[in-house]
Amino acid sequence: MTTMTSNSMQLNQISGYSLYRRLNLFLILTMALILGACASGVKLDDIDGPSKKATAGSAPTTSQPNPFANQPWNDPKNPLFNKSFYFEFDSYVVKAGDQATLTTHAKFLNANKNQKVIIQGNTDDSGTTEYNLALGQKRSDAVRRALNLLGVAENQMEAVSLGKEKPKVPNSDDAARAENRRADLIYQ
Question: Domains in the chain, ordered, with CATH?
């Protein structure tokens, strides 16, 4: 009887070990599939840059045309190049001095009804993250409303807040913080 019990215990240990190995293998394969599914070849910061994709065995190519390269908002000599609107500390009131720039962008958007723009509201690093996200949203909404009053259709604009997460310059002094209190137009 002890031999049978001993054999039974060895069989349980072997099958338990096998089950353990199978479970580990299953978990490893599952994690590999999940991580593989999360991988993306999309470069988020490469919108205006040349294409650097290469196929296996070939050198990187820049032959794909950049659809934004010849757009008026990318020409420093064009009034559309100025795409930032600055705000006073803790304010979301669009400055009267920005009216001419807003009008220029509104005329362009009204003449190009298929053109879309994202308005990104930004803040300096003063205040909490939640407060800055709300203030950034108010700034982007203020620019959106100003453009809408100049005839730009709602479906051409999207107002979003980046809060203090994407400063134009490091928040090292008052002048730098003033640079970060802004709303930027991003043409799509």
Answer: 72-187 (3.30.1330.60)
- Cα–Cα distance measured from residue 104 to residue 82, given in angstroms and rounded to the nearest whole number: 10
* Token representation of residue 19: 């089950």
- DSSP label at residue 108: H
- Phi/psi at 25 (nearest 5 deg)? -60, -45
48-86 residue pLDDT tens: 444 444 444 444 555 566 655 667 777 777 778 889 999
The alpha helices in 39-173, defined as continuous H runs, are 99-111, 129-149
Q: How far is CA 8 from CA 14, 15, 18, 24, 168, in A?
A: 10, 10, 15, 24, 71
pLDDT, position 24: 75
148: which residues sit within 8 A by CB, 6+ positions away? 154, 157
CA distance 101 to 150: 12
Q: Which residues of the chain have pLDDT under 50?
A: 40, 42-59
Q: pTM for this structure?
A: 0.63
Conformational region of residue 123, where left means phi above 0, alpha means psi within -120 to 50, and beta covers everything else? beta
